[in-house]
Specification:
mainly alpha; 69% helix; elongated; 246 residues
C-alpha cells in the first residue's frame, strides 16, 4: 500500500490523532498489569473509532487504501480487548490492501501470521479454562489468512483451535435429542477430526494426538458402518512416535 500523505486536506487531523496515539501508547507501556492495560485500551479506543470507520468506508468506496498507523494499531488494540468481530473487520481491510502492522510495535511477523496466531491463541486459552470461543471468528480468521504465507506451526495452531471448539459444540449437541437425530454430533466430530489431522500434518508437535485418538474412538462407536471405517483408515499411520505423543 502507498504511504499516507501528510499534506493536504485532513493531514493535520491525522497527525494530531497519531500524536495522541503515541502518547496513549507511552502511557500504556507504564501499566504493568495485563488486565489494567486492557481496561485502559477499552477506555481509550473510542477516540480512534471515527477515524477507523471513515478509513474503512473510504476504502470500500474507492477500492484503495494508504498505509495508516492508527488503523493498524487499532487492529492490535481490538484483539487485545477481545473484540474479535471489529478486529477482524480491520484485519480484512489490512490484508486486502497490503497494509503493514504499526511501526511503533516493531512486529517481526507478517500481518496474516499475527492475525491467525492471535485468534488461535485466544481460542486455545478459552478452551483450556473451559470457556467457549465463537467459531465464526476462527473460521473468518482462517478464511482471511488462507492465501498468505506463514509458519506451518501457526496454521496448525488455528486448525487445532478450530477443531477443539467444534468438539465443544459437538459435546453440547450430544445433549440435544434433535441434534443427535440430525447427526450433528457425528458431522461436527468428523469436521474436527479433519482439522486435527491437518494440524499434525503441519506440525508434529501440535499436541493433537490424544484429541485425534478420542475423536476416532467416539466416531467408531457412534457413527458405525462406512463412516467409522473411513475414519480408521484415514487415521492409520498418522500418530507420531511415542516421544511426541502427549
Amino acid at each position: 500500500a502507498p504511504e499516507r500523505s501528510y499534506t493536504g486536506e485532513g493531514a493535520t487531523d491525522y497527525e494530531l490523532l497519531l500524536a495522541a496515539l503515541g502518547e496513549d501508547e507511552a502511557a500504556l507501556k507504564r501499566i504493568q498489569g495485563t488486565e489494567r492495560k486492557e481496561a485502559a485500551k477499552l477506555s481509550l479506543i473510542s477516540k480512534y473509532d471515527p477515524h477507523v470507520d471513515a478509513t474503512l468506508a473510504a476504502a470500500a468506496d474507492t477500492g484503495t487504501a494508504a498505509q495508516d498507523e492508527i488503523v493498524a494499531m487499532m487492529l492490535i488494540w481490538r484483539f487485545d480487548i477481545g473484540d474479535w468481530e471489529r478486529g477482524l473487520d480491520i484485519a480484512e481491510h489490512m490484508l486486502r490492501h497490503g497494509l503493514r502492522l504499526p511501526v511503533m510495535k516493531n512486529f517481526q511477523r507478517t500481518p496474516a501470521t499475527i492475525i491467525a496466531e492471535q485468534v488461535a491463541e485466544a481460542a486455545l486459552t478459552a478452551d483450556k479454562v473451559g470457556k467457549d470461543f465463537d467459531l465464526k471468528h476462527l473460521h473468518r480468521a482462517m478464511q482471511l489468512t488462507a492465501d498468505f504465507d506463514m509458519p506451518d506451526q501457526v496454521r496448525a495452531k488455528i486448525a487445532k483451535a478450530t477443531a477443539l471448539h467444534i468438539l465443544r459444540e459437538a459435546a453440547n449437541a450430544d445433549e440435544d435429542a434433535d441434534a443427535v437425530a440430525d447427526g450433528k454430533p457425528v458431522a461436527a466430530r468428523t469436521m474436527a477430526l479433519d482439522l486435527l489431522r491437518r494440524a499434525i500434518e503441519l506440525d508434529k508437535g501440535s499436541g493433537v494426538v490424544k484429541h485425534i485418538e478420542r475423536t476416532e474412538s467416539w466416531l467408531k462407536k457412534h457413527s458405525g458402518g462406512a463412516d467409522a471405517d473411513a475414519a480408521n483408515a484415514a487415521g492409520e499411520g498418522e500418530n507420531p512416535p511415542p516421544a511426541q505423543q502427549e
